Amino acid sequence: MQAQQTILVTGGAGFIGSNYIRYKLKTDPECIIVNLDLLTYAGNLQNLGEYQEHPRHIFIKGDIADRRLVKQIFEEYSIGGVINFAAESHVDNSIADPEVFIRTNVNGTFNLLDVAYKKWMSAPFQYRVANNQRFHQISTDEVYGSLGETGLFSENMAYAPNSPYSASKAAADMIVRSYHHTYGMNTVITNCSNNYGPGQHDEKLIPTIIRKALTGDKIPIYGDGKNIRDWLFVEDHVKGIELAFYKGKAGEVYNIGGGNERTNNEIVENLCRLLDKLQSNGRQTYLEQVQFVEDRAGHDKRYAIDASKIEKDLGWNAEEDFASGLLKTVQWYIEKYR
């Protein structure tokens, strides 16, 4: 696949999207990024750091569900590729208010996809220019549902989402899939495991544990703390996205996982021990602040990704060791909350 000159990155002020934009602008001198983000509570242009004012970064505040705006962007900037990070993503929020998840994650994705199709293609399987204009959907391992004690999520598994969030992402993925099979559109989907790293929004598990510990509050852990997630350092995820966008086969799905399965109990124990070393309160271990709370409704037991396809086909490998990645993350949040 040829490099696109101008890429529309949606949700580029969020955690993963901003990491991608910084990486892309740093490594690809030919690329122009148009960053469309509504700047809801989870989006912050400060996540882009010095790249916010980069000459090849164009920021537009707006909603992917605003079809008129999306059409205007495609016309004005001759968009040659789309990477759709934009999404409502917090499971607890989807349980409390699922409507906004349907609007953004389902309707918004359809809007982007359909505008791109009508701009890039004159008819099914007929691109107006060379077939190098690609739509990349950023998805999640949660679309696969919950695993038992064994097994891994692979790309050929049936979707079985259990929360309104994961159901909205699964629906969006299916719409993307349909545009490839029905219209011949050049699409790719990546499903990732739990991301972590410096700069993640405070509502997520790892930042919450660090913040609560440092402020002396109770550290809430759902249920018995034995739910298992696979953790992926955000910079490793970004590199996988780049490979899939440029080298992935049209119509394919690639799973990106860190190979770091941990229970929530293990995560809180590792974080508290690091904080004891780096930011001791001189009185007690931070583990004494842990409090088990009522479990989340429909809480999936275990997620774990088989990343062998992207490793074999595209040459991707997770580079960050989990211990070093966690240390970098803790050090960043200590500075933030200081």
Report on the architecture of this protein:
The protein has helices spanning 15-27, 67-77, 91-96, 99-120, 164-183, 205-215, 234-247, 264-278, 308-314, 322-337; strands at residues 6-10, 32-37, 57-61, 81-84, 121-123, 126-127, 134-140, 187-192, 194-196, 219-222, 228-233, 253-256, 261-263, 290-293. The protein is of the alpha/beta class and 338 residues long. The strands form four sheets. It has a seven-stranded parallel sheet with strand order 3-2-1-4-7-8-12, with helices on both faces. A three-stranded mixed sheet has the order 9-11-13. α6 (205-215) packs across α10 (322-337). The longest helix has 22 residues, at 99-120. The model has no long low-confidence stretch (mean pLDDT 95).
How would you concisely characterize the structure shown here?
By secondary structure, the chain is α/β, with parallel strands linked by helices. It is built from ten helices and 14 strands.
SSE map:
Layout: E1 6-10, H1 15-27, E2 32-37, E3 57-61, H2 67-77, E4 81-84, H3 91-96, H4 99-120, E5 121-123, E6 126-127, E7 134-140, H5 164-183, E8 187-192, E9 194-196, H6 205-215, E10 219-222, E11 228-233, H7 234-247, E12 253-256, E13 261-263, H8 264-278, E14 290-293, H9 308-314, H10 322-337
Parallel strand pairs: 1-2, 1-4, 2-3, 4-7, 7-8, 8-12, 9-11, 10-14
Antiparallel strand pairs: 5-6, 11-13
Helix pairs in contact: 1-7, 2-4, 4-5, 6-8, 6-10, 8-10
